[in-house]
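Need a sequence for this fold. Nothing fancy.
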C-alpha cells in the first residue's frame, strides 16, 4: 500500500516538474525544430499532411504543411482553364522553411510571370513539390509518381550541387532525416536501376500508422517533447556521421573531401576523380527525368541553383576558396552541367553567375540570416527575391509555352 502511494507521489512530482519545465520554456520563448515529416516507402520520407510547427535552425519561422502534403497553398487536382501550371521539384531551397510562403523564390517567380504576361493571356500557377534533404534520386521519383495528378505543362527540376551530385550516391549523401528507404540508383546493363539496399529496404518497410502522425503532432505542441525529439535526432545524426566518416577513412585514408568537406570540393567539378561517378549518375538521372516529362507532353527545365560560396559578395572569401581548391574559378561544375545539358538538348538555367552579379551590385549576401555566419546556409528573403525574378526572366525569354502567351 505504501509502495503504491509512493509511486503515485513520484508520478505526480514528475508530472508537476515536466509541466513547470514546459511552462518555463514557453515563457522564455524557447522553440525547437518541429517534426513535419513522415516515413515513406518510395521516397524515404515526405512532408506530413497538415503538420505544422517551428523551424529554427537558421531563422525562426512557422511552417504549415498543406493537407496535400506540400509546403504550399492548396491546389485543385484539375488544372483550371486558361492556366499554365509549373511544377517545381527540388530540395531545401524549394521547401524554404526559413522564409514566409509568399517570399519563397517560386512564389516570387509566379508573381513576376503573371505581372509580365498580358492580362488577356493565361495565368501562371506554380505548385511546389520541394522537400528539404531530397537528392536527385528522390526528385526523379517525385516526377514519376507525384506531379502528374496536377497536370502541369512545365516541370522545373531544381537543385544545388549538394542535392544533384552529393546526394546522388550513398558515399557522399548527408541525408539524415531518414528511417525510410531513400532511393539510390546504380548503373546496370539496362541503365539505371534501384540499388540492392534500396530494394531490400522497400521490401522490409512497414508504413507508419496514424499513431505515428499523432505522435508527431503531439511533439510539435510540446516544448519538452520537442526538446527530447531534437536530442534524439541529433544523437542519431552524430552517430551516422561518425560511422560514415569511419567507413570513408577505412576505404581511403585521405579522401579528397577531408580537408574542406564535400560541399566545397564538389566545386572542382567532374574532372575530380572523387566525384566523376556521381556526376555521371546525375547526368543519367536528369536525362531520365527529361524523358519522363516529355512522355507526358510537358516542357522540362533543369535548374542549377547556386552555392553560398559561389555568390559571396566578398571577393576575398571567394578567392581564398579558389586557392584552397586549387581551381581557376568556382563554376567548373556549373560549366560541366551547361555543356552536358547543351549536348543533350535539355532546357536549362544556371543561376550562380547571375546571382553573384546581383550580390555584388547590391553589396548584400543572398544567403544567411541574423545571428548566423555571414553568407551561409540557405537563401534569405533577398536571395529568394533575386532568384525568383531571375528565373521568371529566363523562362519568359526561352520557354516555348510562355513565349506563346506574350
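Here you go.
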Amino acid at each position: 500500500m505504501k509502495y503504491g502511494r509512493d509511486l503515485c507521489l513520484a508520478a505526480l512530482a514528475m508530472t508537476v516538474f515536466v509541466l513547470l519545465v514546459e511552462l518555463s520554456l514557453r515563457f522564455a520563448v524557447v522553440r525547437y525544430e518541429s517534426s513535419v515529416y513522415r516515413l515513406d516507402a518510395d521516397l524515404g520520407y515526405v512532408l506530413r499532411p497538415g503538420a505544422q510547427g517551428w523551424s529554427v535552425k537558421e531563422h525562426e519561422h512557422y511552417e504549415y504543411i498543406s493537407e496535400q502534403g506540400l509546403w504550399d497553398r492548396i491546389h485543385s487536382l484539375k488544372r483550371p482553364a486558361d492556366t499554365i501550371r509549373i511544377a517545381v521539384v527540388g530540395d531545401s531551397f524549394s521547401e524554404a522553411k526559413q522564409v514566409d510562403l509568399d517570399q519563397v523564390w517560386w512564389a516570387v517567380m509566379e508573381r513576376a510571370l503573371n505581372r509580365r504576361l498580358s492580362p488577356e493571356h493565361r495565368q501562371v500557377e506554380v505548385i511546389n513539390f520541394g522537400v528539404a534533404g531530397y537528392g536527385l534520386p528522390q526528385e526523379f521519383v517525385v516526377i514519376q509518381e507525384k506531379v502528374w495528378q496536377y497536370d502541369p505543362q512545365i516541370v522545373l527540376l531544381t537543385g544545388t550541387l549538394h542535392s544533384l551530385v552529393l546526394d546522388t550516391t550513398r558515399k557522399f549523401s548527408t541525408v539524415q532525416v531518414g528511417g525510410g528507404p531513400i532511393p539510390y540508383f546504380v548503373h546496370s546493363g539496362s541503365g539505371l536501376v534501384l540499388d540492392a539496399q534500396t530494394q531490400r529496404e522497400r521490401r522490409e518497410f512497414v508504413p507508419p500508422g496514424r499513431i505515428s502522425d499523432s505522435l508527431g503532432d503531439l511533439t510539435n505542441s510540446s516544448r519538452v517533447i520537442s526538446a527530447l525529439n531534437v536530442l534524439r535526432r541529433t544523437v542519431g545524426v552524430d552517430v551516422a556521421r561518425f560511422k560514415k566518416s569511419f567507413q570513408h577513412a577505412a576505404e581511403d585514408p585521405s579522401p579528397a573531401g577531408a580537408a574542406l568537406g564535400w560541399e566545397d570540393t564538389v566545386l572542382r567539378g567532374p574532372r575530380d576523380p572523387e566525384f566523376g561517378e556521381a556526376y555521371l549518375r546525375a547526368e543519367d538521372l536528369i536525362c531520365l527525368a527529361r524523358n519522363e516529362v516529355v512522355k507526358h507532353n510537358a516542357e522540362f527545365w533543369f535548374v542549377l541553383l547556386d552555392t553560398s560560396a559561389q555568390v559571396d559578395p566578398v571577393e576575398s572569401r571567394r578567392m581564398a576558396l579558389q586557392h584552397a581548391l586549387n581551381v581557376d574559378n568556382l563554376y567548373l561544375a556549373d560549366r560541366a552541367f551547361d555543356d552536358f545539358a547543351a549536348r543533350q538538348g535539355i532546357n536549362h538555367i544556371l543561376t550562380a553567375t547571375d546571382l553573384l552579379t546581383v550580390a555584388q551590385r547590391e553589396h548584400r549576401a543572398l544567403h544567411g540570416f541574423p545571428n548566423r555566419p555571414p553568407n551561409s546556409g540557405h537563401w534569405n528573403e533577398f536571395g529568394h527575391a533575386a532568384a525568383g525574378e531571375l528565373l521568371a526572366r529566363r523562362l519568359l525569354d526561352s520557354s516555348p509555352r510562355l513565349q506563346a502567351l506574350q
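For context: The chain has a mean pLDDT of 85.
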